[in-house]
Design brief:
This protein has four helices and nine strands, in the order E-E-E-H-E-E-E-H-E-H-E-H-E. It has 175 residues and is an alpha+beta fold. The strands form two sheets. Strands 1-4-5-6-7-9-8 form a seven-stranded mixed β-sheet, with helices on one face. Strands 2-3 form a two-stranded antiparallel sheet. It starts with a strand and ends in a 6-residue tail after the last strand.
């Protein structure tokens, strides 16, 4: 059974991502062409070596982050890392990953919902996502209710020029 938990020193350590499978085969990405985003062929494989896994583990367990992890049999199969400090009306979704063998099973949706709840609790109006431009990644964020922003955070957009800058409102309509 898959559980979503707030990362703590009881359920996570620097070796927790060692067996994590980050692999993603990308065939198409979004690129801005004549002021519109279009899918273009761009084949590559994204993967992490052990050093990258440990670096990410250290990063998402730092005090700068609020991180939720997805666990199956106490093994980390996904996570969402949110920057604790708000950027204006936004909580930054800095990293979100689901181990490749668990994608398409609702794990990402559970993590994303936990992120939205956390953003609401912090007083944010929306999650801000500098999203990898791969077809699958953008399809996921759109399915979660995210849209391209017309007002990107300049530093984030400049840091990752091929990313799509997206927001997802977290405020309930019934408030």
């Amino acid at each position: 059974m898959i559980r979503i938990e707030l990362l703590s020193n009881r359920n996570f350590c620097l070796e927790s991502l060692d067996s994590y499978n980050r692999k993603q085969i990308v065939n198409k990405v979004y690129r801005r062409i004549d002021r519109e985003y279009s899918l273009v062929e761009c084949k590559y494989t994204e993967d992490w070596d052990l050093n990258k896994k440990r670096s990410v583990a250290k990063q998402i367990s730092s005090d700068d982050y609020i991180t939720y992890i997805a666990l199956e049999n106490d093994k980390v199969i996904g996570f969402i890392g949110l920057l604790r400090e708000l950027n204006g009306p936004y909580m930054i979704l800095d990293m979100m990953q689901v181990s490749s063998e668990y994608r398409g099973q609702g794990v990402g949706r559970l993590l994303f919902e936990a992120g939205k709840v956390e953003a609401r609790k912090a007083g944010a109006e929306a999650l801000y996502i500098s999203a990898c431009s791969s077809e699958e990644t953008i399809a996921f964020y759109r399915a979660m209710g995210s849209e391209l922003t017309s007002n990107p955070i300049k530093e984030l957009a400049e840091k990752e020029p091929y990313d799509l800058q997206m927001i997802c409102p977290v405020i309930d309509c019934d408030r």
